[in-house]
Design a protein that fits this description.
heterodimer; A: 648 residues; globular; B: 206 residues; alpha+beta; Jelly Rolls; seven-stranded antiparallel β-sheet; five-stranded antiparallel β-sheet
Chain lengths: 648, 206
Amino acid sequence: MLNNLLAFAVILMFAFGIYGIFDIKSQLTPVVSIAVLVDIVILFAMKDMLMAGVIFSYILAAVLFGLAVYKNRENLAEKIDGFLTPGIILFVLASLAMWALLATRQPMMTEWDEFSFWGISQKLVHYHDQLYTFFRSSMIGNSTPPALAVLSYFFQWMNAEFAEWMSFFAYDVMFFAVYCSFTGFFERKSWNSAVMTFLFGFLCPYIFEVYTKIIYLEPAYMITYADLPLGIMFGGIVAVYFMNEHNDSRSVLCVIPMIMMLTFIKDMGFALSCIAAFIVFFDLVVGRKEYSFLKIKGLAGKIVAGAAMVATAGAAFFGWTFFMARVMERDPFALGGEANMGMVEMLFVGLKELFIGPRSQKFSDIYGFMIKALYTTRVSFLGTAVQIIGLITVIFLIAIVLGDKKSRLRSVTMYITSFGCFVAYYVFHIFLYVYIFKHAEAYALASYNRYIYPYYMGWTCFALINLCHTIQYGKRRLSKTALFALTGAIFVMFTYLTDYPNLFVEASERNYAVRESVEQKVNYMADTVSGDDVIYVYSGGDNGQRWFLYTYLMAENYIVEDLGADVEGRSEREAREVYRETLFKRFKQTGVTHVLIDCSSEFFINTFGDVFDVPMDFVGMDSAAYYKVIYEEDMFRCELVKGGYVNG
Amino acid sequence: MVKKIEKIRSWQLILFSALFLVTIFIGIGLVRWSMDSSARKDGSMQEFTTECVRFQMMGFEYMGDGYKYVVTNHDPQMLSETPQAFTSLKFYMESSMHPGEVVLYYSTEKAPGYSEHRRLWANAVDGEPNWYIIETPVKNVTALRLDPTMYIGNELTFGDFVFNQEKSFGDFFEITTGRVYELIVYTLLISSCLRWLQEFVTKKFE
């Protein structure tokens, strides 16, 4: 637990360092610090020096802190006083309160993909002290960039055991750092505006994750998915640029590490990074007259700044791609999926089909669904995309109408650019559904909300940032009242729709029913399972959730994927033969040494019953069995190692 | 008057908001305590201990051996349709497997039927294995429905069901995480709004 606080202190030290040395607004420094530190660790980790990277980053923070203190030794008290803006105080307060809560409740992961990737990757990285690309595991999707796993490692690498709530804490600190940056215009005398802005940020995840009065856990601040980090970081980038009023390199240089981190969060982060760079560039052109980047003045400087941002995103994205190609021997450009296309190819084919035609049936169907989804699918407790875009438009309008002449132009520009980018982002997702997703998933627009809302979230933040700018420079009385009314209204809706037992506030063990039933079985077998066992898990009637839970809970073992075979149109007897052959081949191929029966089924008994020395018919919800696999010429046998009731 | 308002410092606003909230919390505790004790006094709510046979059990098969049952249906339910004032239920249940979610639905005169919005969760009692507890401020309910497990084949052995156990005075003022959350968030919210009012009255927006 001390590791959490140490990491938090490291971030604060680094933040004070850049505040004291480069004179950056203190509210912007926490999120920039997190980005710089995580980026450094990622670069070390790609050279397989993860732990060294963390140690280096800790030392770097201490050195920077020391330098800042030394530089300001004459007026240190004054400097520290200047550092403690309302934003920083809220950031520290929120983080420590969240830490205290998480440390007492110790919530666990609950969502599907945490066990298939987001959570298990962090657990594996923790135990191996290496990125997941360097070792074999039963985890799927190890091509995903590593920022979040590194962030979570940064907060608990000294601990022997991996703790899930510490991952949540790491995420929350990052979120709060971004909300802190939203308050960048507010000094101590405007502390109440800072509170409202921070609160708006805090509510932002709920706006897009709660659709109706909730009855189950809404894990927004206790989840390791990448969607919130994407959306919030995306908003944070524009905030850090916008609030930073130095008309020189500093305003863009602060953003560059954040762009790098956003790209390292998930593949889609690359698209969002480019969009953020695009929006920042146009604001540079319109909003900053006397601007110079790296001493280059005028438009040239702005172009160089823009190019630097895009280049960073590109370098991070392709750097990771080539790194994977080298370490894991993969084709760097294959996106995979239905049509097995490369990314550039997908863009070209997609644009051609969109604007010139002819459109395939799938294309026109998906296109129709996606357009319809804009006004039929709820993406927020405020309603569909139409309502959200309406809200964003209203906030921008308030900012524009009440703003002074200069901020008016900037707000109009940002509204136009962010709207245009939204269209592009949306069209890009149409392509993804058409070309990458399998038929059934594409037609169901699988995970539509999760893919789209990061943009809405960032976009809402852009609107908020412009409103704050107007409060600072425009008609303050009205715009400040608008901020209060807006945050107040959203807070009231949020309070009405959510109940503490369903939020992080009183989260308790009751949310972990399925998980605990699997955990009970894993504990029952713990004394017979060794780390080298390669295990085939069979769970009758499972939709995949239990299987993923096994891979997560037995992360040091290699767990073989469930059986799948094409038996369409075959008779029952033929199908049985196909299944048996497929499984035997798979076992030999992957080197399965053990079979774990979580729950037997009629199908499994009929197909494989004869290979088990002790029948596994008895295995149900309250029991489990573990068998050793012995290979024979054309089939295998299973000898019981341990089996029985798991509860006493 | 305006001068006086102008002189109020921000920390005073924050302190005032926090104290105001604490007063409200104590008030809520007092109201709940008085409702609880008056319901006990006039006899509409009593502490009593009973067994599972008080419930109408659906989706169970009796296995003998005291109160041992096996679950035969995906949604096993234990119904009790006696109107009463209700505040808590503590019960003993051994389960052959992890029971999953243990929940209690209640219906009231105004809102008959069972809904997910009128659902209470059971928590395991610390230090007393196999005991579960469900608590709520006093409610006049017309029916209760306990769903003790989620799984077919689960073998349950029931013991005592204790309704409306007496609470001490202090129990009504328990500091939950919800209260702490409210204290932090609402203090900030209320004091920010008061500060806005102050700015509004003095016409000086910062």
